[in-house]
């Protein structure tokens, strides 16, 4: 009965690690969507539409796709 106590404490620590990394990924996603919005607006594209597409189309891959296909900046 007493042998299970360390595993219960360890699972709580893993929960905190998961919450920590989940928060980092969420913050990175929000930051990248704000950056994509401002970058698209600066390049003459509708920022809300580009940010929405980046969010809906598999976030990390679509962010890389935007970096490849984004137009030249407006002067």
Q: What is the strand and helix layout of this fold?
A:
Blueprint lengths: L4 H38 L4 H10 L2 H11 L6
Attribute tags:
75 residues; 3 helices; 79% helix
Description:
It is a single chain. With 75 residues, this protein is mostly helical. It has one domain (2-69). It is built from 3 helices and no strands. Helix 1 runs antiparallel to helix 2 and helix 2 packs across helix 3 (59-69). The protein is elongated and about 55 Å long. The N and C termini lie far apart (71 Å). The mean pLDDT is 80.
In short:
With about 80 residues, the chain is mostly helical. It is about 80% helix and about 0% strand.
Q: Can you tell me the overall shape?
A: elongated
SSE pattern, N- to C-terminal: HHH
Give the percentage of residues in beta strands: under 5%
Count of individual helical segments? 3
The chain-level structural class is mainly alpha
Query: Which whole number gives the mean pLDDT?
Result: 80
Radius of gyration: 20 Å
* CA distance, first residue to last residue: 71 Å
Q: How many discrete structural domains?
A: 1
